[in-house]
Write a structure and sequence with these properties.
The chain has 250 residues and is of the alpha/beta class. Helices cover 32% and strands 18% of the residues. It binds fructose -6-phosphate (F6R). The site of fructose -6-phosphate has 13 residues, from loops.
Length: 250
């Protein structure tokens, strides 16, 4: 595992974008696993900037997003499909048909989960999976529990996640209580995992996930078992990790 400790959010975003762009340049037809949330917004903005400069093309890239709220239409302003369009897809040359986000309006959510797993299998797995981490250690919407959920599944969001995500909605009552999420197996099968973390409020969970026991009570801790994880964070989020494991970047 390699850990890049960046001075601030901007540097963190540039470093994460550097790693994604290295993947895309190295393998133009790669499969990118993508995440939403506030942490990767700067990373996507940097990728868009490099695309606009002509330094990067997504023309052959195919993507699979981690998750989507159940019950939200793709054009709902808080849906993850909408987030991806506004932060990345609408601004680069990725082909719309090559982007995949679970369908939050699926009539049969279980069938949608199976369909999603077939897409990932059909791709032969993800080359680089981008992840954020929730305050409770969730990855995708794999919430703390007594077992690691394997495949794409419907999840009941925890109170802590609803609480954290209500900032994006008009009120807490508007936050959906269920989501579709890729399971831990697909995440672990990615050839490389890039996690981005930012802010002092993430420091404790980052420490638990990477220095504590591997446990489904902290889903991100499973990444300790992956052979190719890159953690990119700002100093505030990483300050509880032992200094000797950090590679400083500015
Ligand atoms: C989003 C996702 C979530 C977020 C996590 C952190 O697709 O899968 O696991 O990565 O909730 O969110 P932020 O970055 O807003 O702190």
């Amino acid at each position: 595992m390699r850990i890049y400790a960046c001075a601030d959010y901007r540097t963190m975003s540039r470093q994460a974008a550097n790693i994604i762009s290295a993947q895309v340049i190295f393998k133009p037809d790669c499969i990118l696993g993508l995440a939403t949330g506030s942490t990767p917004i700067g990373t996507y903005a940097q990728l868009v900037e490099w695309y606009k400069k002509g330094d990067l093309s997504f023309a052959e890239v195919r993507s699979v997003n981690l998750d989507e709220y159940l019950g939200l239409a793709p054009d709902h302003i808080q849906s993850y499909r909408y987030f991806m369009q506004k932060n990345l897809f609408d601004h680069v040359d990725i082909k719309p048909e090559n982007t995949n986000v679970p369908n939050g309006l699926a009539e049969d959510p279980e069938a949608e989960c199976r369909r999603y797993d077939r897409i990932i299998e059909g791709f032969g797995g993800v080359d680089l999976q981008l992840l954020g981490m929730g305050h409770n250690g969730h990855i995708g919407f794999n919430e703390p529990s007594n077992a690691f959920p394997t495949d794409t599944h419907v999840v009941e969001l925890t109170h802590s996640t609803i609480e954290a995500n209500k900032r994006f909605f008009a009120s807490e009552a508007d936050v959906p209580h269920k989501a579709l999420t890729m399971g831990v197996r697909s995440i672990l099968q990615a050839k490389a995992v890039l996690m981005v973390v930012s802010g002092a409020d993430k420091a404790e969970v980052v420490h638990k996930a990477f220095c504590g026991p591997v446990t489904p009570e902290v889903p991100a801790s499973i990444l300790q078992l992956h052979r190719n994880v890159i953690l990119v964070g700002d100093m505030e989020a990483l300050h509880l990790l032992p200094k000797e494991v950090l590679h400083l970047c500015d």
